[in-house]
């Protein structure tokens, strides 16, 4: 039973960590090599694409913007560029076309590179064809720029504080309300057991 408990605890926190890692913003310093638009038809991986507009078929093919990049270590990263609208995650992004124009303006070659910071969320997985969604782009002087994820620090600090506050209140509630009830029930069971033993002894 102990192993089952710890397995469930580890599984729960793994899911929480995965959810936060997918949802919270991340920053990549990249060189944009190309931008394009292509038609996609979300299938089994539709959970990793932005929901279709209201009234549209969520599985129907639609045109999506993409941004091709290279990182400072020369690795390739491809981003999709879709509006999040009022849905989840709550980035309230409505400027897909403007963002694509900004990305196209920052295209460069390895001989004369232009570096940019792409703020995004999500994961890149070639096996199931999912892409992180670009949220914003801004030019920077070089690939060695320092980025401090203030939003992530604030949000994670707030979540830790909320979890700690809930844990403290739960422990207080348990010790003041639940433990006395359990102790009282245990005492009554002990008294009942003693009475049964006494009756059994008398019957002998």
From TrEMBL:
Protein name: DUF1523 domain-containing protein
Native organism: Antarctobacter heliothermus
Domain of life: Bacteria
Record keywords, A-Z: Membrane, Transmembrane, Transmembrane helix
Ranges annotated as spanning the membrane: 147-166
One Pfam family named in its UniProt record: DUF1523
Lineage: Bacteria, Pseudomonadati, Pseudomonadota, Alphaproteobacteria, Rhodobacterales
